[in-house]
Design a protein that fits this description.
It contains eight helices and 18 strands. It has about 400 residues and is α/β, with parallel strands linked by helices. The protein folds into two domains: about 210 residues, Rossmann fold, CATH 3.40.50; about 80 residues, Translation factors (Elongation Factor Tu (Ef-tu), domain 3), CATH 2.40.30.10.
């Protein structure tokens, strides 16, 4: 009998995933990951880890599977929290959930599971795994979107490797969320009506400014409003020598100066803000809401534009360095000067967008058919062929 260790989070998805594995004849062990000790910045009613671990224990008892809690908080702090602080300090916007899956769930947690003799690790993610078997008997693993388009979580797993995928199961990937709830209700699982947790992976909903203020101290600076006519899209377009030169031009970030606009308010630290952000500016008196179009953490200035169609919010092309480039399917990776037409997204739940990948020495351009709003350094861009996520990278 194959042994599976499942990460039981205390939510309905992992509960039903555990039930399905047991039904399929696996020997199932439930593990709850405790990753956070600091309650001062979490909104306790939203996602208290103690309540979650209790719910996970009740589910395990109901299903008749062994259960234990593992404390991974030191690894979480080192690999996720410290990374977040570093990224925000540099004016970038990290995605802790993607990192959390790569560094914690499918690395630290997976190693613990394998030490327990597990053949597989399972999670409650809404995605699927495909297997391509070759003539020589070798296998290539596919990361496929979940059947439920509203809940597809493949983006969060965009940094997984072939080795990690080979040892992973996604039991609810073929199901829709209402079907999962229905199954949990039928089984009288305590998590059946529990609402989905929000916020950081394994922490819950965090007050981000308070969280960041633990290490990034408040520092007053100016909020500048940039007029619509001053933007990256008003530049004179040169005659390009080749594809790489054209993409380099469109990938260039707009650079603003305080003298380009007018001071409309003050903020407490440019590193607390991200491109595309509307809330937290506390500036009134404009016809349309202001959006952050750029932050300068060196000079501690926030540049804003009026309205969500402000051209400063949009960019058509982004760049990923070789160091930050990752292929879930290494067999599909590009050589220099090769291109590939894909569907891509720069954030979870964003509709997939048509784009072209173009490889150069040192990295790769992702060139969208339509300009994208709020492309932010530090975010992950993921690209797909149909419903298969084949690669990803950190935006430079």
């Amino acid at each position: 009998m194959k042994k599976v260790v499942i990460g039981l989070s205390g939510g309905v998805d992992s509960s039903v995933a555990a039930y399905l594995l047991k039904e399929q004849g696996y020997e199932v062990i439930g593990l709850f990951m405790k990753n956070w000790h600091d309650d001062s910045v979490t909104i306790s009613e939203e996602c208290p880890w103690l309540e979650d671990s209790n719910d996970a224990l009740i589910v395990a008892e109901k299903l008749g599977i062994p259960f234990q809690t593992v404390d991974l908080s030191s690894e979480y702090k080192e690999r996720i929290v410290d990374y977040m602080f570093r990224e925000y300090e540099m004016g970038r916007t990290p995605n802790p959930d993607v990192l959390c899956n790569r560094e914690i769930k499918f690395d630290v947690f997976m190693k613990i599971a394998l030490q327990l003799g597990a053949d597989f690790v399972a999670t409650g993610h809404y995605c699927r795994k495909g297997v391509l078997t070759h003539e020589d008997g070798s296998k290539t693993y596919q990361l496929l979107a979940g059947k439920d388009g509203n809940k597809d979580q493949s983006y969060f797993l965009c940094q997984l490797s072939q080795e990690q995928l080979s040892k992973t199961l996604f039991p609810i990937g073929e199901l829709l969320k209402p079907e999962v709830r229905k199954m949990a209700t039928k089984m009288s699982l305590v998590t059946a009506d529990k609402k989905d947790s929000q916020g950081l992976c394994f922490i819950g909903k965090v007050r981000l400014p308070e969280f960041l203020q633990q290490q990034l101290k408040p520092k007053n600076g100016k909020i500048i409003r940039i007029p619509t006519e001053i933007s990256a899209f008003q530049r004179e377009i040169p005659v390009f020598q080749d594809k790489a030169e054209e993409l380099a031009f469109y990938a260039e970030k707009a650079i603003y100066n305080v003298s380009d606009g007018t001071v409309v308010g003050e903020h407490q630290g440019a590193h607390y803000f991200t491109k595309g952000q509307r809330k937290g500016l506390h500036v009134g008196g404009t016809k349309e809401p202001l959006f952050v179009i750029e932050t300068d953490v060196t000079e501690n200035v926030i540049y804003t534009g009026e309205g969500k169609s402000h051209p400063g919010l949009y960019r058509r092309t982004l760049f990923v360095t070789d160091e930050e480039l990752h292929w879930v399917r290494p067999d599909l990776s590009l050589e220099t000067h090769q291109e590939l037409h894909v569907l891509a997204r720069i954030r979870y739940r964003q509709e997939l967008q048509k784009a072209m990948l173009y490889k150069i020495d040192g990295g790769m351009y992702v060139d969208f058919e339509k300009p994208q709003s709020a492309i932010q350094e530090g975010q992950f861009v993921a690209w797909y062929l149909d419903d298969e996520l084949v690669g990803s990278g950190v935006i430079s």
